[in-house]
Each structure stands twice: as structure tokens, then as C-alpha cells.
Write a structure and sequence with these properties.
CATH topology of the largest domain in chain B: Tetracycline Repressor, domain 2
Order of helices and strands of chain B: HHHHHHHHHHHHHH
Number of helices of chain A: 3
Number of strands of chain B: 0
Helix content of chain B: over 70%
Mean pLDDT of chain B: 90
Distance between the termini of chain A: 64 Å
Order of helices and strands of chain A: HHH
Radius of gyration of chain B: 21 Å
Largest sheet of chain B: none
CATH superfamily of the largest domain in chain B: UbiA prenyltransferase
Strand content of chain A: under 5%
Oligomer: heterodimer
Helix content of chain A: 55-70%
CATH architecture of the largest domain in chain B: Orthogonal Bundle
CATH class of the largest domain in chain B: Mainly Alpha
Mean pLDDT of chain A: 78
Low-confidence stretches of chain A: none
Number of helices of chain B: 14
């Protein structure tokens, strides 16, 4: 399967395809930006980072 | 197998939909009002949100509104084709298939609600979902073709964005948010009935039960006056809440006086006079009603910023 321009449909629909591509890129940017904003404004995520936490272990024994 | 192994050339004279045609399904002009009012609702809320969260909230509220617009175009393609004002929309113009409008509307509806939930909170997402349902199902599929009060009840859909913006920031509904909702809700009937008075043949030909068609033009003129009178206490009532100050009160008092005067003039006229001057007063009031709404929300935004910087404070703070 060739990825080159093999059919006139590529040319005819190029505007539409570019529009969809830009929209998807913008959506990815929004989700990424939102993730950064959420992580940076929330507290530390302790206990879910697979690191030993003696404090939590002590609490579990209570 | 290549994706070009079939003959996909359009038939002679057939139109190939472009990206802009799909974007037009989202009713960009209506979206601009949604973006503006939702932004005001978000900015005047007493809780500061991260700029990225605020931007995302406005974006997804706008996409949700656009999705309901696409669903509206899918369902209303038959009457849009008949009315001059809507005949150039992508579906009646034959640029986009009705099934594509349905698919885009449903997809964007789900996406916008889920993303608003993830970006802000569940209540804001539920309100957005309800707004889409209200506009697409209650208004478009049911009320619009059934009752002359379609504009009154359907206007609620357009009134939700500032409420959703407020809830996106605060997580709860309060008096200020309800009054912002009420301002758009009460403004919608006189705005659209003024339009219906001078676009008279459109609704009649499409067999849409607008008040002008079902109850006559004199009744419509009376309704415009009554709803404008009812709008005034809602608009001025906002001045007594924590989000409005002296500037809002001054601007609202002036705008409501002008709007009332316009509604009074419409009520006093009869069809012969209106026909004679090409519905000049009705057109003037319709244009003014747009300024009226933008100015109210614009001043709320200005005062929201002023309060935040401590330049001056609210009058009452109910």
C-alpha cells in the first residue's frame, strides 16, 4: 500500500482532512494542558506511586 | 488494498463538503453568544479557577451548544429548506447529509459532556447534558412544531450557559446564577417575536406555530410588551446581588428603559403602519435586543474584574 498521493480524492478532500487533523491536534493539546493544570493544582498523590511508605504501613496496622 | 480502490469521484455537479460546512452545523453565531455568556458566568463566580480549566470549560460548553445545533439541523432540515433565513444552512443546502449532522451532533454531545465533567465537576456536566437534551428533544422535536409558546420554553436552552459557567467554577447553583439564567430566559421571547414580526412569511410557509401565525400579530405585539415588562425586574434584580455594582445598575436602568420604550412602540403600532415603513421599529428593537443582552453581560464582566481588583464593590450582595 502506497502512502503517496494515489487518487484525486486526496486532493479533493485535502481541506477537510487538514481541518480534521488540526482539530485533533488541538484536542490533544487541550487534554494535555488540562492534565498539567489538574496535576499542578492538586495535592501530592501518596500511596499510589509504588514506593514504600512506612507511614501508611503503620496506619494499616492500627 | 488501497483506500482509493473504488471510484469516489463525485457525480457531475455534486458538492464535496468542506470542513467549514461541518463547522457551520455547529451554528457559530449562536456559539459566540454561548461562549460570551458562559465566560461571564465563570468569571463573575466567587471561586477562581485555573485559566486552563476555565478555557476548557468554556470550550466544552461551546462544543455542547454546537452539538445541539447540529442535532437541530438534522431534525429541522425540512422546515429549514422552506424558510429563507435558514435555507442556506449546510443540510437544507445539500452540502452535508442529514445523517452526518446526526452523527456529528451525537458524538460531540457525548464528548463535550464527558470532557466538561473531567475538566470541572459532575453538576456542570449534567447541566450541559440537560441543555443539549432540552434544545434537541424538548424544543426542536417537540415544542417547536407544537405550541406557539415554543420560543418561551425553548429559550431556556439558550439561558443555561452562564449558569453552567458559574457551576463549573463553584460546583453549586446560587441566586446570581439563577438570575443570569432568568435574564436570557425572559429576553428570548421579545427578541424572537420582534424577528417573527418582520420575517412573517418564513414561519407561516414552514408551518411553524409561531405566535404571529397562531394568535395573530396584535397578540404578538402585546406579548412582546408583557415579556419586556417582566424582564425588567429580573435585569434590575441582578444589581442587588454580589456580582453587580453601581455601573451595572446604571447601564441596566438605561437599557431597560430603552427596551421598554421600544416594546411600547411595537405594541402601539398596527400592521398598516408597520407595513408602510417596512417594519422599521420592529427591526430597530430586534437589533437593540442584541445590544441589550451583550451590554448586560459585558458590564457584569467588567464589574467582576473591578471587584476582584478591589476598585469598587457590589451594591447589595444578596
Amino acid at each position: 500500500m502506497a502512502f503517496g498521493k494515489t487518487h484525486e480524492i486526496h486532493e479533493r478532500r485535502s481541506g477537510r482532512n487538514i481541518g480534521v487533523a488540526l482539530t485533533l491536534i488541538a484536542f490533544i493539546a487541550v487534554v494535555f494542558g488540562l492534565t498539567v493544570a489538574k496535576i499542578s493544582t492538586s495535592g501530592p498523590i501518596e500511596g499510589f506511586d509504588h514506593a514504600p511508605r512506612p507511614v501508611l504501613a503503620d496506619r494499616a496496622g492500627d | 488494498m488501497s483506500d482509493a480502490s473504488y471510484d469516489s469521484r463525485p457525480l457531475t455537479g455534486e458538492y464535496e463538503a468542506q470542513f467549514g460546512d461541518y463547522f457551520a452545523l455547529l451554528k457559530p453565531r449562536v456559539m459566540s453568544l454561548v461562549v460570551f455568556t458562559a465566560l461571564v458566568g465563570l468569571l463573575v463566580a466567587p471561586v477562581a479557577v485555573h485559566p486552563m480549566v476555565g478555557f476548557s470549560a468554556i470550550l466544552f460548553i461551546a462544543i455542547g451548544a454546537g452539538a445541539s445545533g447540529a442535532l437541530n439541523m438534522w431534525w429541522d432540515a425540512d422546515i429549514d429548506q422552506v424558510m429563507k433565513r435558514t435555507a442556506k444552512r449546510p443540510v437544507p443546502a445539500g452540502k452535508v447529509a442529514a445523517s452526518e449532522a446526526l452523527a456529528i451532533g451525537l458524538t460531540l454531545s457525548v464528548m463535550s459532556v464527558v470532557m466538561l465533567w473531567l475538566a470541572t465537576n459532575l453538576l456542570a456536566a449534567c447541566l450541559l447534558a440537560f441543555t443539549i437534551f432540552f434544545y434537541a428533544v424538548i424544543y426542536t422535536m417537540w415544542l417547536k412544531r407544537w405550541t406557539p409558546q415554543n420560543i418561551v420554553i425553548g429559550g431556556a436552552a439558550g439561558a443555561f450557559p452562564p449558569l453552567i459557567g458559574w457551576v463549573a467554577a463553584t460546583g453549586s447553583v446560587s441566586l446570581e446564577a439563577v438570575l443570569m439564567f432568568g435574564l436570557i430566559f425572559m429576553w428570548t421571547p421579545p427578541h424572537f417575536w420582534a424577528l417573527a414580526l418582520f420575517m412573517k412569511s418564513d414561519y407561516h410557509e414552514a408551518d411553524v406555530p409561531m405566535l404571529t401565525v397562531t394568535h395573530g400579530r396584535k397578540t404578538t405585539r402585546t406579548h412582546i410588551l408583557v415579556y419586556t415588562v417582566l424582564l425588567v425586574p429580573v435585569a434590575l434584580g441582578l444589581a442587588l446581588t454580589s456580582i453587580a455594582g453601581p455601573l451595572y445598575l446604571a447601564v441596566a436602568a438605561f437599557l431597560n428603559l430603552v427596551f421598554l420604550r421600544g416594546a411600547w412602540q411595537i405594541w402601539k403600532r398596527d400592521e398598516a403602519v408597520a407595513e408602510a415603513d417596512g417594519y422599521a421599529v420592529e427591526k430597530k428593537v430586534f437589533r437593540f435586543s442584541l445590544i441589550y443582552l451583550f451590554a448586560h453581560f459585558g458590564v457584569l464582566m467588567i464589574e467582576g474584574v473591578a471587584f476582584r481588583f478591589g476598585l469598587w464593590g457590589p451594591l447589595g450582595g444578596l
